[in-house]
């Protein structure tokens, strides 16, 4: 097995590029959804470290 992806492994999802931006319930859209979720989670962590914590404000409302 080769150490780097080949055309055979890149076309394993629906016979098209796995990085293609496709809508609907496709493996490509799930990959992009995960990538955007990681970016959003990192953005929230950085925002929280800056001192603007939504979670802390919500937890202070609970008696």
Annotation keywords:
single chain, 63 residues, mainly alpha, 3 helices, 57% helix, 0% strand, elongated
Helix content: 55-70%
The total count of helices amounts to 3
Mean pLDDT: 79
Distance between the termini: 59 Å
Uncertain runs with pLDDT below 50, 5 residues or more?
none
Strand count = 0
Main sheet summary: none
Give the helix/strand class: mainly alpha
Over all CA atoms, what is the radius of gyration? 19 Å
Shape, principal axes of CA atoms: elongated
The string of secondary-structure elements, in order, is HHH
Portion in beta strands: under 5%
Description:
The radius of gyration is 19 Å and the shape is elongated. It has helices at about 5-10, 25-50, 55-60. With about 60 residues, the protein is an all-alpha fold. It is about 55% helix and about 0% strand. The chain has three helices and no strands. The termini are far apart.
Q: How do you describe this structure in short?
A:
This protein is an all-alpha fold and 63 residues long. It has 3 helices and no strands.
How would you summarize the topology of this molecule?
Blueprint: H1 7-10, H2 27-50, H3 54-61
């Amino acid at each position: 097995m080769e150490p780097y992806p080949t055309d055979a492994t890149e076309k394993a999802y629906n016979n098209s590029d796995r990085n293609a931006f496709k809508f609907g319930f496709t493996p490509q859209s799930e990959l992009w959804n995960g990538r955007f979720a990681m970016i959003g989670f990192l953005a929230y962590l950085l925002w929280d470290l800056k001192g603007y914590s939504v979670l802390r404000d919500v937890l202070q409302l609970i008696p």
